[in-house]
Amino acid sequence: MGAVVYAAFSVLGRFHEVVAAVFLGLVLTAVLGPVANLLARRMPRALAVAVALIGSIVLVLGVLSLVGEAVAGEEARLERNFSDGLGRIKQWMEGPPFRLGRGTLDDIQSRIAQFLTSHRSTIVSTAVSGLGRLVEVVTVLVLALFCSVFFIHSGDRQWHWFCDQLPASARDRVAIAGRAAWRTFTGYTHGIIVVATTNAVLVALALFALGVPLVLPLALLEFFAAFIPLVGSPIALTVATVVALAAKGPIVAAVVIALIVVIGQIEGHLLHPLVMSWAVRLHPIVVALSVIGGAIAAGVLGAVVAVPLVSVAWSVHQALNQAHEPALGGR
After folding, report:
1. Three-class SS of residue 286?
2. Which terminus of the chain has a smaller tally of CB atoms within 10 A, N or C?
3. Quick check: pTM over 0.90?
4. Cα torsion at 89, 90, 95, 97 (round to 10°)?
5. What digits encode the pLDDT tens for the residues 227-281?
């Protein structure tokens, strides 16, 4: 199974923008398909698809606008908190157990400034290439939205048409594999969204109670990071720990570190076993190897796609075996 997944990543990696767009289109279909089906009971199918997609776009833009307003409203307080926080971190590093010299941190700061000055052209070129990446991201999002329109509207008819083009001897097995794959993919998508939302709410409540700034951006970061199993949430909460250290000091930062452990236990022992029963439940070793292997093969996109891809591949394997056994028994 690992060899099959690696081969798939190697082939699809050459067309990662298209693969990312189709994957996001399938995610949108899994999330918005039930909404469109519900709306289609009271309005034409095409209008229901348009309402579902436009409503989701408005919701996402509203959340991003709310985050932007929250950051802008706290800008002055953030500058003051971070300035004071950097001073506290400096005093903390100069004391036990680190005992750095008083001029060490100032020397590091001056070296960073000299590096930025001497490598200004490199930084500018990197920023320009980042703009190119932004164009690629926007292109992928537009293509994903375009694909999702047709997937939601008539995805079942497209799949039936595809099966009809196959040789008659292969149609039944492909149909069984397709049903198993889509059932697992939608179950995984719904489950990971529930897990990500729960994690984000827990992080937001905890950071708000601790008085840590940037609650909404950090909760949103936790939401998206949760789509990378095992490693995503700790990385996002590490960023929250740095913010807490700079704004509130080491005690609050230590509490946030404890929060990482608590949320990890809730996610690993409660949410994943409960929610992921909708999809194929994989052993943690398989999940870890899938995430790392996907990241090596295709970066962040590979880390996100790896677990659902392995889940789908395994569910297809099981469905075909179950379909094959009755056929052998009948003979």
Report:
1. helix
2. C
3. no
4. 60
5. 887 778 888 888 888 888 777 777 888 888 888 778 777 776 677 666 665 566 6
Instruction: Give me the amino acid identity at 329.
Output: G
Q: Which residue has the tokens 């594999």?
A: 177
Tokens 């002055």 appear where?
76
**CA 284 to each of CA 231, 274, 289, 312: distance values in angstroms, whole numbers, following the listed order:** 12, 15, 9, 16
